[in-house]
């Protein structure tokens, strides 16, 4: 009831002047689907598939097990969009059969797509399971790879998707600064981008996301991060492709307005944040969001950026 009482708390995401901003849910498995549907998510912008693999860290789950889990999620969003991220093992999510145990810097090590390219059978089985799970469903399935650094990574992932006979659209996460810097070349290989601002912040500021003492350097409001978001969104727009945000940044209502102003095309977040972000967007025009974004980028710190955006959005 409290959520329903929020202004503009139902319906699709949009600014007050009707610029559409699809609001999608981040989910970690079928158990999160009900909350996403209840919050009015227009689909899933990040389905983290690690849960399936963490149950038994010695081997990958069978294709059949994967098909059942994926189908449960895909069936919940009949005509919606569901973006599935292939396994992101390593660093904070180590798996015995994939992750080297002796890395000096696991966050800079063999993780995400890097692990999958070393174990192509794991990627192949996951992509085949997704192809089977989506067969015959009206869902708009999109599949993306984590920890993509450059065009060669994007090409390797695209080839694996084609070889697995996946009819879905495939894309990559932008969570390594090199991918944002070279977004234009990466888009020669794939159909969309999705900004993982948690890792993008970690790698931009060289501050481990698991080290609490570095929290000052993990703030997505920092103009350095906003610049990388803008760069990625501009590259996607120039190619008529989408560039969403699926990191924690999307769940901050004020920052969601700034991200909209920077040109991102969808926002994906934990279900609980969706009504608040929807309400914030509904209060401002796209032009106001763009002015807030420009004001934030003109500052030199996360704190100043937030204050500048706040001033623009509350002063009008
Ligand atoms: C991110 O890095 O922003 C992201 C969405 O992925 P994860 O948090 O699962 O690493
Ligand atoms: Mg990440």
Molecular structure report:
It is an enzyme of class 2 (transferase). By secondary structure, the chain is α/β, with parallel strands linked by helices. Helix content is 43%, strand content 13%. It has 14 helices and eight strands. The chain has helices at residues 33-38, 50-54, 63-75, 113-118, 120-134, 151-163, 177-181, 183-186, 197-204, 223-238, 253-262, 274-282, 286-297, 302-315; strands at residues 23-27, 43-48, 81-85, 140-145, 169-174, 192-195, 242-245, 266-269. It has an eight-stranded parallel beta barrel with strand order 1-2-3-4-5-6-7-8, surrounded by four helices. Helix 3 crosses helix 5 (120-134) and helix 11 (253-262) crosses helix 12. The mean pLDDT is 95. The site of phosphoenolpyruvate (PEP) has 10 residues, from strand 2 and helix 9.
What is the residue-averaged pLDDT? 95
Total of helices: 14
Structural class: alpha/beta
* Beta-strand fraction estimate: 5-15%
Strand order of the largest sheet: 1-2-3-4-5-6-7-8
Estimate the global geometry from the Cα principal axes. Answer: globular
């Amino acid at each position: 009831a409290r959520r329903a009482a929020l202004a503009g708390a139902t319906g699709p995401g949009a600014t007050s002047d009707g610029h559409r901003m699809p609001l999608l849910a981040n989910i970690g498995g079928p158990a999160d689907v009900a909350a996403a549907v209840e919050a009015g998510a227009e689909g899933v912008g990040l389905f983290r598939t690690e849960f399936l693999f963490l149950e038994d860290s010695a081997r990958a789950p069978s294709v059949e097990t994967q098909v059942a889990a994926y189908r449960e999620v895909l069936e919940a969003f009949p005509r919606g969009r569901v973006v599935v991220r292939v396994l992101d093992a390593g660093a904070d999510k180590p798996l015995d059969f994939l992750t080297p145990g002796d890395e000096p810097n696991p966050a800079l090590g063999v993780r995400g797509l890097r692990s999958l390219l070393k174990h192509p059978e794991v990627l192949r089985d996951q992509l085949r399971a997704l192809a089977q799970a989506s067969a015959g469903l009206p869902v708009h399935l999109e599949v993306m790879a984590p920890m993509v650094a450059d065009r060669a990574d994007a090409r390797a992932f695209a080839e694996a998707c084609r070889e697995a006979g996946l009819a879905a659209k495939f894309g990559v996460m932008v969570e390594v600064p090199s991918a944002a810097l070279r977004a234009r070349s990466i888009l020669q290989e794939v159909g969309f981008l999705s900004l993982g601002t948690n890792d993008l912040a970690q790698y931009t500021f060289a501050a481990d996301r698991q080290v609490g003492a570095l929290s000052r350097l993990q703030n997505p409001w920092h103009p350095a991060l906003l610049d990388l978001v803008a760069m990625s969104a501009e590259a996607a727009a120039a190619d008529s492709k989408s560039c969403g945000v699926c990191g924690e940044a999307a769940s901050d209502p004020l920052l969601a307005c700034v991200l909209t102003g920077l040109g991102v095309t969808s926002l994906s977040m934990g279900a609980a944040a969706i009504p608040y972000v929807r309400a914030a967007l509904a209060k401002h025009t796209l032009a106001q969001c763009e002015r807030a974004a420009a004001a934030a980028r003109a500052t030199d710190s996360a704190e100043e950026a937030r204050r500048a955006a706040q001033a623009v959005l509350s002063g009008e």
